[in-house]
Specification:
Length: 176
Amino acid sequence: MTDQAKERSAFCTRRGLFHFNRMPFGLSGAPATFCRLMQKVLQDQLWKICLFYLDDVIVYAKTHRELLERLYTVISVLGQAGLKVKPSKCTLFKTRISFLGHVVSEQWVDPQPEKNRSNKRLANTEMCARCTCILWTCVLLQKVCEKLCDYCARLLVYFHQISKQNLPPPWVGKFA
C-alpha cells in the first residue's frame, strides 16, 4: 500500500493508532484494487507475454526457452513492485489449463466440460418450453387447419417425452 493509502486505512484502539501495510482480507473493493495494481504493474507485458485475472497470471510462449525468459521478466516486474510469487501455487510448462471457465490449450479454447453440460441442459429445456408454447398456439388454431394440428399434436407428445428424459432435440448439432 502507498503511504497515502496507509493513512486512509488507519484505525484507533486502546493501544494506540495503527494502519495496514498490506491490503487486509475481507476489505470491500480489495479484488478491484488488486486488479488495478496488477494492471499497472504488468501493463507493458499484458497480451504480449502474459495475461492475468485477479491473482492468476498466465505466461505463455512457443518454446521452453522463451517461456523461461518470459517467466523471468514477469517475476522481475512483480518483484520490483513488491509482489511475491508463491512457488507452491505455481504450475509450469502446462500445455492445457483452466482459466475463467474455459480450457485453454495450444490448439483451441473450449468451455469447461462441467459448465458445458449444464448449459446444454438449460438450452434444451428452454427450447422445449418455447416449442411447446408455439405448438399449443397451433392447437388452438385447429379449426383453421386440421393437418397442422395433427402434426403439432405429435410434436407436443415428442417434446413432452424429451423434457422428461432430458434428451437433446433431434436437431441439436445438425446446424452447427
